[in-house]
Known about the structure:
The chain is α/β, with parallel strands linked by helices. It contains 23 helices and 17 strands.
Amino acid sequence: MAARKKLNLGQSDFKNIIKSDAYFVDKSLLIKEVIDTEKSVLLFPRPRRFGKTLNLSMLEYFFDINEPENDKLYGNLKIWETEDYIKNHCGKYPVINLSFKDAKANNWNDCYELITNEITQLYRRFNYLLKNDILEVYEKNDFNLIVNKKAKNTDYQNSIKQLSEYLERYHKEKVVILIDEYDTPIQSGYKKFYDEVVPFMRNLLSGAFKDNANLYKGIISGILRVSKESIFSGLNNLSVFSILDNQFSDKFGFTELEVKEIINDFEVKTEYKQIKKWYNGYKFGKVKDIYNPWSILNYVLHPEDGFKTFWTNTSANELIKNEIKKKEADATRQNILKLINNEVIVKDIEENFVFTDLDADNELLWTLLTYSGYLTIKKQIRFGEYELAIPNFELKIIFQKTILKWLNVDVKIRKSLLQTTANHLINNQVEKFEDGFKQIIGDTFSYYDTAKNNEYVYQSYILGLLAIIGDDYIIKSNKESGDGRYDIMLIPHDKTKNGVVIEIKQIEKQKNSENNADFYKRINDQIKLAVNQINKNKYYKELIDSKIDKSKIVKVPIVFAGKEPYICLLKN
Length: 572
């Protein structure tokens, strides 16, 4: 029974999984798709932990000419139910499998050493090439320079192409080249040693795949499709199958059918819709309801421990935090807060990505977050333009934590103050809400002392405050309701709780020549105007439509005089 099989979590070696009779989600028809496609070099950009390494391992053992007994590994898999011409490829080709997943460093020297160590280990696996007369003396010398870690930079750059030539000559069969996590060194080098790592990787990969007469198939995996201009220069035979494409769209990540089978096999009693809420939500090409494999497998291993955020990506988390912290990044923060509040944003997704362009074009952040798995595509609007959303509750929590950490660490706003102030708002304790809100806004704008005083910026920070209660409320901004547009609305999931409508106004701060009475009158007039606007335009209509009783609707005017917020009427 599948339910009794051991789940080797984190094991990416296909042969070990099959031989140990461990649990395996059958993606073997990927092999057939690779063979059937007329493309010779395939790039698969997918998020972390979506099965790239295991799939490449499965391809390696299938094709490997040095493992003739490997056909037994596939006897119980879908690939062995296909036509004979597919099975005839099993054990036919020499295979080069090289992974750069661990090539992460803080400087180029260390990164270069990690890369060349991988190449050295690769060459040592083919020591048998030295034990005959297939190689010329000078070729053996070149081979030994790499084996003994004494080769030149250019020798390493040409190493994969050279090794493929040696293997084709020895076995008299073309070579399969597998490169896993090709972009890890490039991401690691961003803003550190980018100018060193890109030329090296470009020459290494171009040598392996460009006009290589010894090549049968080349398969490359990574997170991003890094631009041809920076990495795949001149590689005309490269075909990219990204999360936007239909081909291979169900071969990375778990489909809904596969997840339901896993839940059944492991006898998980959790209500399915809760699992779906937490870990579903990705759309790859034409396939909807793709799940994060790492999160699903971690959860089914110990469902009694409850739902957790199993999937994280440290480098991308840092990038999000850095973008949020930028003082000029109000638009970015506004978009992230909309996403946290279960809204979609419409953005261009660039198929080619150049890291250095991120400094000049903040909009590329959305491409990076989508390819990295932090966002998913809901639908295509027009060519290159898509609706994006946070895929599931797990990712929503990661975004929330990022916002809260920014507010706590950089803006110095305590989480307890955020929670207490938000609770005052939803409990209709308006005076207490005003006190806490004044403190939060004061701290925020003292940090962002260059922020422009406009409603758009104020709204961004109010949404940031409300992100902490986003699990209990649907939080919306700038939507049509009644006869106009409210600024912010809180719709409770629990219909017995209060709903909130917020209207923001802005006036000039008190002038030196202005006495308190006149200033208070200006404030009070705007507060009254905001409340009247809510009532006259029926901004609360959406709350009524959501079955919130009219007595449970809290109407909150917020008037900013410069950077100072006022909510309650002032007394002379």
